[in-house]
Fold each of these.
Amino acid sequence: MNSLSDIYLDHFGYGLGDQKFTIEETCRKGLTFSSLEVLADSGFEAHHVCSENQSAYELAKTAVDQIATSFSAKSLSSIDAIMYATCLTRNGNMGSWQSFVETKDVKSLMDFPASHLQSDFDMDKAFVIGVNQTACTSLLGAIRLAKSLLQTERQYQDILCLTADRFPNGAIYEQGYNLISDGAAGCVVSKSKGPFRIIDCHQISNGAMAQANDDETAGFYFNYTHRLIQEILSNNNLDIRDVAWVVPQNTNIKAWQIMSSLLNISFEQVLMPTRTSIGHCISGDNIINLKKCNESGAFKRGDLILMPMAGFGLNWSCILIEKEN
């Protein structure tokens, strides 16, 4: 019998930019900081980029269409809340800056995609919360907030957590030595039993490093990721030997070759099935990789899984889950 405080992850979906490019094509256009050789050696092969007129909101709708199909036993109209996360704050507004310039009316700066999502998918009973200012950790932060809300508000049952971001046209598609994809990803956080039970969520922030450059970010990555994982395990009286799998963001393959050694786990336990084909999908990597791994039958009942993510700000977030069914 489930505990009343048990919270689950279920009903996963994602959407990607409508243009797929190889790293050769992107490097030829001058849209990376690193050379082709460096990115190829890092384990990246291709990524997805939005065409000029494809918006972050269109990515969000694609992800939610998939979630709605999986959620069909109920209906998204039963969703109690929407946690809409963005890494780039500009993706949290669908209004036009030019309209503001012309009219001086700030309403155009408050045209929120979460409100559109609520209306477009008939989630009339849901209230909306925007989550940002934590960069690539935004979706994990939204899941953490949803878990806490469900455990404190008895009347709520299901919360939709979603992230959707695209880089501005002309942007460099590399950050922190990682190849970037435009994309959206989401899931339902629920009191109803699902394939993954959330055991705990943990986050560390270092605001003093808010404007760290790529080299500084890479240098801090190992120390803070190691600390993040050790702390979430300690908080739950667990040891790294209790963990079956790590499902991280899609990052430079060398980073997790080093990180797995520091954690004293096998690199074979680190699952990034979409790294080569998608690259770093901003805030959505963990959920996309979790969905792919689950569909492939990688997990067995009782497996403990860590989902760590690092983001600018600087922020580090991790969710510890258990495979249920």
Note: The domain at 196-323 is CATH 3.40.47.10 (Peroxisomal Thiolase; Chain A, domain 1).
Amino acid sequence: MDDETILENLGNIQTHGAYRHYKPLSEAANEFIRWAETPELRVYTGIKELDKAMRGTAPGELTLIQGFTHSGKTLVATEMLLNNQETPIILFTPDETRPLVLTKLTSALHEVDARTLERRIQQDDASARDLLLSTAERFNRLAIFDDMVTISDMDRMFEEVTHAIGMKPKAVMFDYADLLAGFDDVRNAITALKMWGKAHEVAMFVLHQTSRSSGSSGRAIKIDSGSMGGEMQATHVIGVRRKKYMHYANMALLEEKIANSTNPNSIAAYESKMAEIKNYMLPRDENTATINLVKNKRPPCDLVEDVDMLIDPANGRLRRQEQHDDEYGNPVRTTKVALSFLKQSNSQPWEQDEMF
């Protein structure tokens, strides 16, 4: 195409009142000003280290929550829902049913073991039913869809939710990216979800599973840990892992070295390391989820190193950690709630019926 034709085409575009693609840089300045002036439009995780660095996920932005199977991704997503009870949110969860999500929310919100909750309902306990119903009312701005959906399905469901609750959702969470129907490539699925969120001007949170080579055995999540990509499209990437799986893998490796070694000094060193993992590291991290921020496009692009949070074994709630010394003088990470259990006998939270 020659210069004359290009100018002619530009003239035709201008005749219709606007350029198709070009925008003056002043518009970018105005967009940033609007963003800076409206932090209330962003959605926050409720985890202070992440929120300080990310400063929220704004409308049109994508945050990936990334980890291997059983790494705690859904625990982090549930914690975000608990920290955003008044926020209108849509959760697409083909991986879990709506009753299961509600049960998890009820258990975490009221600090009740799900097994106790189920048993009480079986016993026709009205207070147990009331807990479920009150949780559903508490989260009356949360819409959950547990069917396999396409992008077109999401459009229709978004319109229905907006009409039903009388306001436009601020955030959409998809658990997890591989389950978006109509895409064989997860990278294309994540790209489609990002474009969809941008078109609807909502904050997108997408759970994404790491590759086996990068995310198994509890190893640290990195920028390239995602299976077949996804990190390029995201404004933020939150990594989630369980350190206990790393300890299990290291113990298996040490066992193999002990079995194959003929050097007594080496065997003694391996056994010493095995004892350290078994007696200290594994008990310390048995019920922890480790969160980090491995990508952050928000200037100055601060990242977050490992934040260890305790998983309440009774209800799955993530809790801030405190530190105390055990009976041998060793530092132990725990939570304020767990401290009360440490002072009791070996009773477990789910054995205590006074939770209701």
Note: Residues 242-286 form one domain.
